Amino acid sequence: MSIPDVGAVAPDFTLPGITMASGEVTRSDFALSAHRGSPLVLAFYPGDETAVCTAQLCSYQAELTGFKDTGAEVWGISKQGLDSHERFARKEGLEFPLLADEAGEAVAAFGIGLPGIGLRRSVFIVDAEGILRWKHVALVGARFQKPDALKKALASL
C-alpha cells in the first residue's frame, strides 16, 4: 500500500496496546475509527529500547502536557509485543499508549513497511474527524520529528 495523502481519511486499524498511569499498566484495544473528537499523533517507531526510539518517545513524554494543551493524544506504534511495550514504558516512564502492530496491519495500511527493518520512522497527525492533516515519513530512521514541530502542526488544525 502507498502512504496516504494529507487530506485523505486516515487508514483505520485496531491494535492491542498498553497504557501506564501512576505505575499501573492497563492493556486494551485501540481503534483509530473509535477515536474521534480530538487530534491524534501516531508515532510509528522501529523498536522499543533502541537509542533513537527511546530519545524520540521520551521527548514526546516530556512534552505530553504540551500535546494535551492542543487537545491531542499521542499513540506510539511499533511491531514489538505488549510485554516489550510494558517493559519499555516502565523503564522510561512513558504514559501514553504504546500499540503492538506485530502483524504489521497498521504499518501496511500507512505504507511505511521496510523489508528487514520493519518500518520507516513516521509521524502522522490525524484530526478530530479522522482526516490525515500532517505527515513525516523518514527515509532512514536515524532522526525524528521534535515535539515543537508536531505542536506547531497541531496548532494549525
Primary descriptors:
27% helix; single chain; alpha+beta; globular; 157 residues; 29% strand; Glutaredoxin; two-stranded antiparallel ribbon
Reconstruct the topology from this structure.
Blueprint: E1 14-21, E2 24-31, E3 40-44, H1 51-62, H2 64-69, E4 73-78, H3 82-92, E5 98-100, H4 105-109, E6 113-114, E7 118-119, E8 122-126, E9 132-137, H5 147-155
Describe the fold and architecture.
- Strand 1 (14-21) and strand 2 (24-31) form a beta hairpin.
- 27% of the residues lie in helices and 29% in strands.
- Strands 2-1-5-4-3-8-9 form a seven-stranded mixed sheet. A two-stranded antiparallel sheet has the order 6-7.
- The longest helix is centred in the middle third of the chain and has 12 residues, at 51-62.
- It has a single domain, classed as Glutaredoxin, CATH 3.40.30.
- It has 157 residues and is α+β, with helices and mostly antiparallel strands.
- The protein starts with 13 loop residues before the first strand and ends with a helix.
- 38% of the residues are buried.
- Main sheet strand line-up: 2-1-5-4-3-8-9
| Helix proportion | 25-40%
Architecture (CATH level 2) name: 3-Layer(aba) Sandwich
Biggest sheet: strands, sense, closure?
7 strands, mixed
Spans of at least 5 consecutive residues whose pLDDT stays below 50 are: none
Shape, principal axes of CA atoms: globular
Structural class: alpha+beta
Tally of individual helices: 5
CATH class: Alpha Beta
In terms of DSSP E residues, the strand content is 25-35%
CATH topology heading: Glutaredoxin
Domain module tally: 1
Termini Cα gap: 26 Å
Q: What is the CATH superfamily classification?
A: Glutaredoxin
Order of helices and strands: EEEHHEHEHEEEEH
The total beta strand count reads 9
Average per-residue pLDDT, rounded, comes to 92
Work out the radius of gyration.
Answer: 14 Å
